[in-house]
Every structure is written in C-alpha cells, then in structure tokens.
C-alpha cells in the first residue's frame, strides 16, 4: 500500500524573511496534515481532507500575496515570474489537482512535491533579492 509523503522544515528552505519562512512552514504542516486523511473512504475523513485542502489553498493565496509584496518592495526582477507561478497554482488546484481527477493520496503527494519545489526556488531567488534591496 502506498503511503503519503511528509516533509519536515529544513534550514536550507529559509528565504531569510520571517513572514515568508513562517508561511512556508505552515503550508508544509498543512500538507503533512492532509496525509492523516488520505487513507480511508469514510465521509468524515473525506470531509476533513477537503476542509484542509480548502484551508491550504486559502493559505497559499495569502502567502503569494506576501511574496508579491516583498518582491515589489525589493524591486525584484522575478515579479512577473512569481505572478505566473501563482496563476499556475490557482489553475492547478481549481482545474487539475482535484479529487475529481485524483485520489487523496495522489493529491497529497503532488502538493508536497509542488510546495517543496516552490520553497526551494523561493529560497534561492528571494534571498538574493532581499540581499540586493536598498537599505533605509
């Protein structure tokens, strides 16, 4: 039987911005929480999974807004790339990565992989942006 993936925070995931790092950690925790509800087809487990999934997508929107604010403040050249990534995530969770198309285990694994990739990429791109931003 396949098992869900879980991931723990790793210091190399750090962007160097407390707000973004806290949000990234909370998103990973939310993905891990989904893992507790992938096995089983009882209505309560399904409801909890969907509730957590909806909370995760709401948290993602808030997080993307925080990232955009940082990028605007830093005049980061990757702002448009960031906006495209946000649009991609919105499209994926609205149209593709749904329980209509995938089972809960596949969704949970996808979300873990997507978010770890996003976090690692953010750490690489945004650390440099924050370091090069003008100081007050």
From TrEMBL:
InterPro entries: Hemerythrin, Hemerythrin-like, Hemerythrin-like_sf, Hemerythrin_metal-bd. Residues 16-121 form the Hemerythrin-like domain. Keywords: Iron, Metal-binding. GO terms for molecular function: metal ion binding. Pfam families: Hemerythrin. The keyword Iron applies. It comes from the Bacteria. Belongs to the hemerythrin family. This is Hemerythrin. It comes from Candidatus Propionivibrio aalborgensis.
